[in-house]
Design goal:
Helix content: 25-40%
CATH class of the largest domain: Alpha Beta
Structural class: alpha+beta
Largest sheet: 6 strands, mixed
Shape: globular
CATH topology of the largest domain: Alpha-Beta Plaits
Distance between the termini: 24 Å
Radius of gyration: 27 Å
Number of strands: 15
Number of helices: 28
CATH superfamily of the largest domain: Reverse transcriptase/Diguanylate cyclase domain
Oligomer: single chain
Length: 707
DNA sequence: ACGGGTCCGACT
DNA sequence: TAGTCGGAC
C-alpha cells in the first residue's frame, strides 16, 4: 500500500495514461486491415479457440469480454477477428508488446517525470511543465485551442451532456478566477492532449488519460472515458466523485480488501469510508492500510511518480493446466530450459541496451500432490544469485526446482525420477530475474576511466563537462546513464572482461551497503520525507525535488507558446483531433512509416541557444534510466562477457553477498584510479543525509491535518 | 481446472 | 533475506 501523503492542498499535476486495448492496437498496426473491425488477441488456440487477452472496442459492443474463450467470442460476435499472440519456445512471447510499450514510454517521458506502471500504462508528473505553462502561456491568452483539449471531459462540469460541451470546457479551461490548482490541471490537460497526439503520430496508438492532483485519482479518471479520450478531475469535484463511487472501483480495493470493507464495514462507496475514524480503520486493517484508507476516502494520496522507464524484473512462465501437468523431472527440465532461454535473452538485451544487471534468480512453481496429509502445502519459491549465461541460468533454475520439490514433498520423498510418478504434478513454472540495477557507470573514476579512453586527457574536467551536458547528477552519485550514452558510440571498451569485473565487484559493494528502503509512515506531526531515507546508494531514485530551473522542462514549454504555429504545421495533415487523424488515413493503405514523420521538436522549438537545445533532445532528466536504444546489430549471445561473471562469482562464494568475500585480487587488477575509488566505497561511507533537497523544502512540509 | 503471463509492493 | 501473498492488467 503506497504511503499516503496527507496533503490536503495537493497542487501537483499528475496524469495517468492508459493505452486502449493495447495488444489489439499493436496487432492492428501490424495488420491495418483489422482497423475498425471487431478484433481480439488470443493465446493458445488449442483449447476452445484460445483465451482472449485483449478485446477491441468494436468487439466489446457485441459483449465480447476478456476471459472469454475464442469460441465463445465467436458465438456473440461471429465476425470477430482473432489474432494469436506470437509463440516462441512453445510459450506466449510478449516481446512485440513490450517493445511497443517502450515506444510509447519514450514519447511520454519527454514532458516530465515518467513511471512505467505496466506494459501499457504510465504515470506522469507534469507539475513543473504545468507551472511553467501557467506562468508563460496560460490558457486564457491562447487564441486557438486544440480540438483534443476541448474534447476533454471535466468531471463536475454541469453540461457534460449538452451540445455546447466544448464551449463549457473551453470556459473552464480559460477561467481566470479559478482555483490555482485547477488552472494547473487545465494546463495539464493541454500538455496531455499534445502528448497523446504525439503518441498517435509516432506510433499509431491511441490512449486515454486522466489528469488529477494525484496518482490514484488520475488512474481513476483515465478509465472513465475510453477509448482515445481524456478526463480531468478538478479539485472541487473530488468529493462528489468519491461520494458515489463504488468502493471496488478504486485501485487496490478491487480485491479482498474491498470485499472486506463491504461485508465487514458495510462500506459500499468510497464516500462511505468517511464515517470511520482513522483509528478505527487502523485498528481493523493495520496502521498503514488504515491511514491509507482514511486518506483515500478524501481523495488524498501522496504516492509519488517514480521516474522509472524500465521494468524492475523480468520473468518467463507457463502454466500446465490439469492433464498437461508435468510429472517427470525430465519434462520439468525441458520447460525450464525454454523459460530460462527466454529469460536469458531478455537479460542480455537489458544488459546491452540499458546497462543493467539482474542479481537474483527466482523460481516459482505450483504443484499438486495426491494423498498426503498436507497435500495442500504450497510449492515454495526459491531464489539464488543470478549468474549470467543461458546454461548457468538453466542449471541454477533446475537446482532451485529440485530443492523446492524436496521441500514440497517433505519426508515423502520420491524415489523414482525417470518415469512418471503418481505423487505429484507441476501445473505452473516460472523463472524470473529481479534486483536489476544499473551497472555503476556513475561513479566518478569510472566515468573518468571511460572518458580517458575517449582521448580526453584532463579527467576531472571531462567529468565536469559530461555532467553539464548530461543529466543533473543526484548527489548520491548513482544516476541515470545519459552520460554513458552520450559517449557510448565512440567508446572502445577497455576490454569488456575488465569492465564486467568492475561492474560486478562494484555491484556487490553496493549491494552490501544498501540498507533496504524503509517505509516511512506518516505521523500527523511529522514532516513528509517520502521514502527517501536511504536513497544514498540505492538504485537511483529520482530526485523528488529537482530544481525548478530544470532546463528540460523550461525548454519544452515554450512550445506551448507557439501553439498556433504548431497547429499550422500539423494542420497540413488535417486536424489535431485524434478521430480525424484516423479519418484521414486511407485504411487500405499500408501504414505510413512513421520514422520519417517530421520531428515535432523541429517544428515547435526553433533553436534558442545551442547548448540548451541539445539538452532538450536528451530530455530524460526526470527519469531514472533510458529507454532501450536500438537493438545493436551484432548478435548478443552468451558471449565471453559472461565468462568473467562466472569467474568472479565462483571466487566469491557466490551464494551470498558479503563484502568480505570480494576477492581483493579483483580490485588489484583494476586501473589505479578505480582501485582508489573502490577503496573509498569499501570504507564506511557517510552519505547519509547529503541528499540535496533543493530550494523547495516547503514542498515537504505538510499542513497539519485539521480535525 | 486456471483467462495466461507478468509485474509490483507490502508483510513477516 | 527470502519467501508469501494480494492486486492489477
Amino acid at each position: 500500500m503506497p504511503v499516503a501523503r496527507p496533503e490536503t492542498s495537493d497542487s501537483r499535476v499528475i496524469a495517468h495514461v492508459d493505452m486502449d486495448c493495447f495488444y489489439v492496437q499493436v496487432e492492428q498496426r501490424k495488420q491495418p486491415d483489422l482497423r475498425g473491425l471487431p478484433t481480439a488477441v488470443v493465446q493458445y488456440n488449442a483449447w476452445k479457440g484460445g483465451a482472449l487477452i485483449a478485446v477491441s472496442y468494436e468487439a466489446r459492443k457485441y459483449g465480447v469480454k476478456r476471459s472469454m474463450r475464442g469460441a465463445e467470442s465467436k458465438e456473440v460476435c461471429p465476425q470477430i477477428q482473432l489474432v494469436q499472440v506470437p509463440v516462441a519456445r512453445g510459450k506466449a512471447d510478449l516481446s512485440t508488446y513490450r517493445n511497443a510499450g517502450s515506444e510509447v514510454v519514450s514519447i511520454l517521458s519527454r514532458k516530465g517525470r515518467c513511471e512505467r506502471a505496466s506494459i501499457d500504462e504510465v504515470y506522469l508528473d507534469l507539475t513543473d511543465a504545468a507551472e511553467t505553462m501557467l506562468a508563460e502561456a496560460p490558457p486564457q491568452i491562447l487564441e486557438v485551442i486544440d480540438e483534443e483539449v476541448l474534447k476533454s471531459h471535466v468531471l463536475g462540469l454541469n453540461s457534460e451532456d449538452g451540445s455546447n460541451a466544448k464551449e463549457s470546457v473551453r470556459k473552464w479551461l480559460c477561467r481566470n478566477d479559478a482555483d490555482r490548482r485547477d488552472k494547473l490541471l487545465a494546463c495539464g490537460a493541454f500538455i496531455i492532449a499534445e502528448l497523446r497526439l504525439q503518441v498517435l503520430k509516432e506510433t499509431e496508438f491511441t490512449c486515454s488519460a486522466g489528469i488529477a492532483h494525484n496518482k490514484i485519482l488520475a488512474k481513476l479518471a483515465s478509465g472513465m472515458n475510453k477509448p482515445a479520450q481524456q478526463t480531468v478531475v478538478p479539485f472541487s469535484s473530488v468529493k462528489g466523485l468519491l461520494d458515489s463511487l463504488p468502493i471496488k472501483k478504486m485501485k487496490q480495493l478491487g480485491g479482498k480488501l474491498g470485499d472486506s470493507l463491504q461485508s465487514d464495514l458495510g462500506v459500499n462507496t468510497v464516500g462511505d469510508l468517511l464515517q470511520f475514524s482513522e483509528e478505527k480503520l487502523q485498528e481493523r486493517y493495520g496502521i498503514n492500510t488504515g491511514t491509507w484508507l482514511w486518506n483515500i476516502a478524501r481523495g488524498i494520496s501522496g504516492d509519488e511518480v517514480e521516474g522509472r522507464l524500465l521494468p524492475k524484473s523480468h520473468g518467463s512462465g507457463k502454466t500446465f493446466p490439469g492433464p498437461q501437468a508435468l510429472k517427470t523431472i525430465a519434462s520439468v527440465q525441458h520447460w525450464l530450459h525454454e523459460l530460462c532461454e527466454e529469460l536469458s535473452e531478455r537479460l542480455q538485451l537489458d544488459l546491452d541496451q540499458n546497462k543493467r544487471i539482474a542479481h537474483t534468480l527466482v523460481l516459482h512453481a505450483t504443484a499438486y500432490k495426491v494423498s498426503d496429509s498436507d497435500s495442500h502445502k504450497k510449492f515454495p519459491s526459491k531464489s539464488c544469485p543470478l549468474r549470467y549465461g543461458t546454461a548457468k541460468i538453466q542449471e541454477d533454475a533446475l537446482s532451485l526446482f529440485q530443492a523446492a520439490l524436496r521441500e514440497y514433498l517433505g519426508s515423502y520423498t520420491a524415489k523414482i525420477q525417470g518415469s512418471q510418478n503418481n505423487h505429484w504434478g507441476i501445473t505452473s513454472l516460472s523463472v524470473s530475474a529481479s534486483k536489476i540495477v544499473p551497472i555503476p557507470s556513475g561513479t566518478a573514476s569510472i566515468t573518468k576511466y571511460f572518458h580517458g579512453h575517449l582521448s580526453c586527457s584532463s579527467t576531472k574536467q571531462s567529468q565536469n563537462n559530461l555532467v553539464e551536458e548530461g543529466t543533473p547528477v543526484p548527489p548520491s552519485g548513482n544516476e541515470s546513464y545519459s552520460e554513458m550514452n552520450v559517449m557510448k558510440p565512440q567508446i572502445e571498451f577497455p576490454g569488456e572482461e575488465t569492465m564486467i569485473k568492475i561492474h560486478v565487484a562494484l555491484q556487490k559493494i553496493r549491494h552490501v551497503m544498501n540498507s533496504p528502503r524503509k517505509l516511512y509512515r506518516y505521523q500527523p506531526q511529522d514532516i513528509y520525507v517520502g521514502s527517501e531515507h536511504c536513497s544514498g546508494m540505492n538504485q537511483s531514485q529520482p530526485m523528488k525535488n529537482y530544481s525548478a530551473e530544470e532546463p528540460c522542462v523550461k525548454l519544452s514549454m515554450p512550445s506551448l507558446n507557439r501553439q498556433e504555429q504548431k497547429r499550422k504545421a500539423v494542420k497540413d495533415k488535417g486536424t489535431c483531433s485524434i478521430l480525424r487523424f484516423f479519418k484521414n488515413q486511407d485504411p487500405s493503405c499500408a501504414p505510413q512509416k512513421l520514422e520519417h514523420v517530421e520531428n515535432i521538436e523541429d517544428v515547435k522549438a526553433p533553436p534558442l541557444s545551442p547548448g540548451i537545445q541539445s539538452r532538450s533532445n536528451n530530455c530524460l532528466d526526470h527519469n531514472q534510466s533510458e529507454l532501450p536504444k536500438e537493438r545493436p546489430s551484432e548478435d548478443a549471445g552468451d558471449s565471453n562477457v559472461c565468462g568473467s561473471f562466472q569467474i568472479e562469482q565462483r571466487r566469491g562464494g557466490a551464494w551470498s553477498y558479503n563484502i568480505d568475500e570480494i576477492d581483493p585480487s579483483v580490485i588489484d587488477e583494476l586501473p589505479p584510479e578505480i582501485q582508489q575509488e573502490f577503496r573509498a566505497w569499501i570504507r564506511p561511507h557517510k552519505r547519509h543525509n547529503t541528499v540535496k533537497r533543493g530550494s523547495s523544502i516547503a514542498h515537504y512540509f505538510l499542513p497539519t491535518k485539521n480535525t
